[in-house]
Amino acid sequence: MRIDSLDIHRVSMPLIYPFRTAFGNDEAIESVFVRMRSGGQAGWGEAASWRAPAYSPECAATQFVISRDFIAPLLLGKELESGMALQEALAGIKGNFFAKAAFDLAWWDLHAKLRGAPLWKTIGGEKPVVDAGADFGVMETIDLLLETMGKALADGYKRIKLKYRPGWDMDMIAAVRAAFPKAVIHIDCNSAYRLSDLVMFKALDRFKLAMIEQPLAHDDLIDHARLQAALETPICLDESITSPAKARQAIQIKACRWVNIKPGRVGGVTNALAIHDICRDAGIPCWIGGMLESAVGASHCVALATLPNVKYPCDIFPTSRFYRQDLGVPAMEHCAPSQFQASDRPGVGAEPDMALLKACGMEQVELPRNA
Ligand SMILES: [Mg+2]
Q: Fewest Cβ atoms nearer than 10 Å: which of 132, 219, 250, 251?
């Protein structure tokens, strides 16, 4: 397909409750949307790197600049017959995976629409209904967490993910395990620890957690391999897996037994599929994570969650969990308790509400500028 035009929108999507990051409490999620046009058809992509570089080295402001000044000029007017061709066209740009991802997601939406097929079938998904888990951050008290978790389990959630960091750690997990001895639980450390915390991690083995997500530095593989060798509990890598090459290296040195695939973090659907296949071939199961995207980005996550090597409930949420109104339509809603269904419409099945895209807009550009 020939890329006729590209629109890039940086937006701020107000949250119902502030989201806690290393830089304080964010009242909104900053995200970047891309509309890619070819032959009278348009596809949409979204990648949310957030206001500050708290999760990865990128943030929405840098994502917008890299998208406008470096990525779009490399794609405009080009014939891109595959997601891999798009990735190869951008190979000269180092890093900036979220920036690349929004274009890659738009390409896949457009590609599936031009074929007249749903995205989940286009990428080899096997079943349109996918499981989602429940996630809980740091709360005011452990009692409040236990009460909230009890409701989630009663609502049918098959697994619980808990944020885990200094001050909200061993005592919390001990109380949770005592209250829910059989529940499938894992913790996400978001890179808060170092290898010198090995003794603490070994002490977690007795709680039979499903996995420990990203315990060590955001860009580390080597120390994770040393930690994994010392633990019974599987390690799941999130932040560290930014590309298919990183996934291959992590598996080679046994740095993890699970991989959380986020399409934004890895540069899009193309690389998500490659990582999925590398993991499948190595016997490493995956699941799909997200960045609190609107229904546009989240619908790409649902499509990826239909892949056969996705073996654990994913981080996909109904709109009502974080937003009063979803910037994407249709909004995210469960099709059954703790489940979502991939759209059967051509493409990914969601696109922005244009009035809301404008209302939430921080900066935007239409390319070519004289289009
Ligand atoms: Mg994580």
A: 219
For the chain, which domains are there?
Answer: 5-116+354-367 (3.30.390.10), 121-341 (3.20.20.120)
Nearest Cα to 133, choosing from 334, 342, 350?
334
What's this model's pTM, rounded to 2 decimal places?
0.97
Q: Whose structure tokens read 């406008």?
A: 68
The question of whether 246 is a catalytic residue gets the answer no
Residue labelled with tokens 């244009």 = 354
Q: Which of 121, 262, 311, 358 is catalytic?
A: 262
Count of positions (residues) in the chain: 371
Nearest in space to 134 (alpha carbons), one of 120, 148, 147: 148
Give the chain's end-to-end CA distance (angstroms, integer): 18
Question: Is 121 assigned a catalytic role?
Answer: no
Taking only the tens place, the pLDDT of each residue in 214-259 is: 999 999 999 999 999 999 999 999 999 999 999 999 999 999 999 9
